[in-house]
Amino acid sequence: MARLAAALAAAMLLAGVALAAEQQKVLVLLDSPSLESSHSAFLAGLRSRGYALEVRPIDDKSLQLKSWDEWLYDKLVILGSSKALGGAIDAAQVVQFVDEGRDVLLAVDSDVSEELRSLAQDLGVDIDSRGNAVIDHFGYDSHVGAQDHAAVLADNFVKSAAVLPKALSTPVLFRGIGLSVAAESETAFLALAGSPTAYCGKPGAAMTDAKLAGPELGLVALVQMRNNARVAVAGSLHMFSDAAFQAEATARNDRVLGRASNEAFCTAISKWAFQEQGVLRASQLSHRVLAGAHPGAVKPERYRVNDDVEFSVVIQECADGGCKPYTAEDVQVELVMLDPYIRTSLKHDGQGRFATQVKVPDVYGVFKWVLEYRRLGYSFIELTETVPIRPFKHNEYERFIVQAYPYYASCASMMAGFLAVGAFFLYTKA
User: What is the 3-state secondary structure (H, E, C) of 301-359?
Assistant: First the structure.
């Protein structure tokens, strides 16, 4: 009976997980009906991870993302090219979709429409001029053809375990258009960049100056929005295709490098975009008084100046349906009133709990605990907790303090002098 009960419990748990996964509805918009068969492996991979896919033409006049105030889908995949968005969907609604915490994966090619270029730009990624392509005269796939230098072998991957948990041993076969992100952007970064010899231009045309070239030329860009929604923009439809998944990467000297890493890379960026990896969860934020007016008090209404307090928080890293303790040496917390009065690093115990002990500053007012953690590839953590700091009450000062001993001595000497002079006048005969 015990084994039967355990089996039933496990089955119910798996059913619950499957139900939760089925609730993740994904709308897939295709520029051409043929993409459903030519990109079947990528779509099958999404289904195998538990998503319920609804595949529609990108220009379907009956398309809609929301009904009244309710979103109909949790994720959006656009495999687009020259066609514009149809139905009730437009670039502004997709941006609103992201602003409300939902995720988007956008893949385009050299024939990208102006609406999709505008959409990518609104999400923080610039796409090169229509008709241009990424070209590399040294890092091309010779298996495709010695004259086709637009079939690029790219291996300049982002150095982030949150995006690529496993190192890729072979390059990605890329055929498409270049991207760029602002150098000062705090939200967008390149997951795959061009080699030093790559540039973006017209295939077959001579180029003397390229607007996008080298490592600043983006092939795949990722955006971690401030609300922790995610966007992935790829400049190639071909890299998601079945042909690219099965292709052998061949260097220009006809040296076979092995199967291209397209399948592993595309799976990784889709997992990142759909928040299946690189997600940080913060919980159990707490602060307590160690020594002071109310020792042992947890989250007190206010501190007293010079109290000794402990701040702690639990951070977990979630990936592939599970969470584990996050470990890092660069998590910091600040105690702020207009400017930080205290900034200190948090130490972890290996179990996900980060904590530090500080002395409250000798300044009273309304302070805030502020924890902001932003690292490449990980979701943002922004926590605040308001706590006032009060001065000593009149009855909390020590009766006698060392610093006042000179004043005590002056009072005593004055009293002694008064008594001596009084005694002299009282008991001395004139």
Answer: CCEECCCEEEEEEEEEEEECCEEEECCCCCCEEEEEECEEEEEEECEECCCCEEEEEEE
